[in-house]
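forwarding from the other thread:

> can someone predict this with pyridoxal-5'-phosphate?

sure thing
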Amino acid sequence: MDIKKLVKPNIRTLRAYQAEETPCKVKLDANESPYGFTVLKSIKTNRYPDPEAKDLRKIAAKEFKVKPTNILHGNGSDELIYYLITTFGGPVLYPVPTFSMYGIISHVLGVKNIEISLDNEFDLYVDRILKIIKKENPKLTFLSSPNNPTGNCFSSDKILKIIKQSKCLVVIDEAYQPFSEKKSFLTLLKKHKNLVILRTLSKIGLAGLRVGFMIANADIINEANKVRLPFNLNSLSQKVAIDALQDKKQMQKYISSIISERKKLIHDMEKMDGIEPYPSDANFILFKIHSVRNRVSNGAKDAEKIHKNLLKRGVLVRNMKGIIDGCLRVTVGTPRENTIFLKNLKQLL
Ligand SMILES: Cc1ncc(COP(=O)(O)O)c(C=O)c1O
């Protein structure tokens, strides 16, 4: 597959921005201040960050078992979605409901988007998708797996079929993969040149830092790197992300706690009358509200009411109105937060 042919013509001829990085004693070339503050030992606030995030990409490469040249760093994976659509253009195809940014960024960049609904199990209509890919020839297909907001992973064999049978880039957004028992697609990168994986540190305790990674064949990384803003990832984020990735024990402890709390939450929610939690491979649970009062299908109104009343009691969950009517989405919190949520939900039901 010739990746260059997929790239928008104006990007194809572009060269990635190269920041001057000549080592020297007196650095007076970049209009920086010579005076800095000590935020963290070893962080110089007066200097621009490493534009290539070399140390961070090195440690991320180790984590994902790829080479640093297979990684592009982003100010969150949102930014990397933006870079992908900027670089390759559209049409952009994705199943719905899913993460809203695929549609929003396509729209912002004036690129056509194609939405295909999920089946009743929130899985992919694979044949329908392949048919539309053939007809519409999208440049990018986004698959969030585990999917936000439904929480499930799509069937691996269906994803694989799409990767194998389409000529576009297939982006598997694995933002929630650390919470899933299903296998990551990272190991298939060598075999499938049109595969792109997105990962983020946001869901595993570092959302405030805004650090995301695109992992793909170096040809794809090099093209997307051309549209990356030179200093997109600040020094503080780079440093803290490196430390966090080195302290994997602590990170794993948090992930395990979320997984075990998710199991407890689902177990307790399943016992409640009037709601139906869906299985989850992520750090959140989607649940449906059934109208139990007079057995009339009035779930949408009830969902809104419960959302509002939970908020009155200080508990904020996501109202999925307009996306999956009649459903709410709750993020797995600390054991204490989860207990408060369950207690209030039970009382309201
Ligand atoms: C599927 C999915 N991808 C990406 C993101 C964005 O992640 P980041 O914080 O790295 O921009 C989210 C955030 O909610 C998400 O749900």
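The mean pLDDT is 91. thats all i got for now
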